[in-house]
Amino acid sequence: MATLNRENFANLLWPNYTKLIGEGYKLKPEQYSKVFKVLKSRRAFERFLHMGTLPPWRFNNEGNTFNESEKVEGPEVTIYMKRVDNSFVITHEYWMDNQKEAMDGRVEGRGPVELGDGLRKKLEEVCANVINDGFTKIGYDGVPLFATNHPLAGTTETVSNLAPVGESAITNDNMEKAFTKMRTSQLSETGYRLQVNPDTMVVSPDLQFQALRVFRSTQIAGTDWNDKNVLPSIKVIVMDYLNPGIWFLKDSSYENLVFYWREKPIFNHIQIQNTMDVKFYGYARFGVGYINWRGLYGAKIGA
């Protein structure tokens, strides 16, 4: 008869724990991956250099050499990879006294389900904080992600992607103004119109139903008029870790909010030296941030 030891009790638990970790991660659907572009990285950081777009073609005369334009260099953005991890321990005594609970993953509220769920919550929190901090934290171009004065490298003009206080509430009129401003005033580094066209609205939980009323109503929301609601039908995404009062519009054709996997989650177990106990752990590395403010327009109501 085999002797029960720390190695084989861990091996007995591991197949079911692998399943439970996955179930824990999937307790709620991912939100961040619907808003951030998920990419792969092979380095400790990713660097992005802003370049001004080439201007439109110019007329030329017969026999002339080709028109030539120089690209303008803008600011540089760096996204650093960071490590996250967590673990829990099952003691030999706990296993001996509570084998059914241990096999089922019920380890005093700190078992495999919580390990998987904890990773997903961390990813949601970190991504949401890029937006939460986006109204105050200085970014790569010297102003926050959402600001009234984004500088351009090839011109003295500045551009706003922050809704004025008087236009921050989610109403039909304000959304029409936001759509128009995105299409007409978002410019390249050299000052050319980019034809931004939002297809997604992201909101904090407290704004979910107001956003749905505005974008899903057949008639103009909140009025007794018969005027038809002519706002485009766009996706409305709620990010549960956004601070109250935050919303923004997004053109998904622009690469702006990015998430880089450096090392995707690794789950395993190890024996703890000089004990009869086993540690179950999870580890990952990723980087998150924004590399462009273009294609985004938002507000923090009450700020």
Task: Name the features.
single chain, 303 residues, alpha+beta, phage-related protein like fold, four-stranded mixed beta sheet, 12 strands, 26% helix, disordered N terminus
Quick structural overview:
This protein is of the alpha+beta class and 303 residues long. It has helices at 6-25, 32-35, 92-97, 99-103, 112-132, 172-185, 208-216; strands at 37-40, 45-51, 73-80, 82-90, 150-151, 158-159, 200-203, 235-238, 246-250, 257-271, 278-290, 296-300.
Describe it.
This protein is of the alpha+beta class and 303 residues long. Helices cover 26% and strands 26% of the residues. It contains 7 helices and 12 strands. The chain has helices at residues 6-25, 32-35, 92-97, 99-103, 112-132, 172-185, 208-216, and strands at residues 37-40, 45-51, 73-80, 82-90, 150-151, 158-159, 200-203, 235-238, 246-250, 257-271, 278-290, 296-300. The strands form 4 sheets. It has a 4-stranded mixed sheet. Strands 8-7-9-12 form a 4-stranded mixed sheet, covered by helices on one side. A two-stranded antiparallel ribbon has the order 2-3. The radius of gyration is 25 Å and the shape is elongated.
Please outline the helices and strands.
Layout: H1 6-25, H2 32-35, E1 37-40, E2 45-51, E3 73-80, E4 82-90, H3 92-97, H4 99-103, H5 112-132, E5 150-151, E6 158-159, H6 172-185, E7 200-203, H7 208-216, E8 235-238, E9 246-250, E10 257-271, E11 278-290, E12 296-300
Parallel strand pairs: 1-10, 7-8
Antiparallel strand pairs: 2-3, 4-11, 5-6, 7-9, 9-12, 10-11
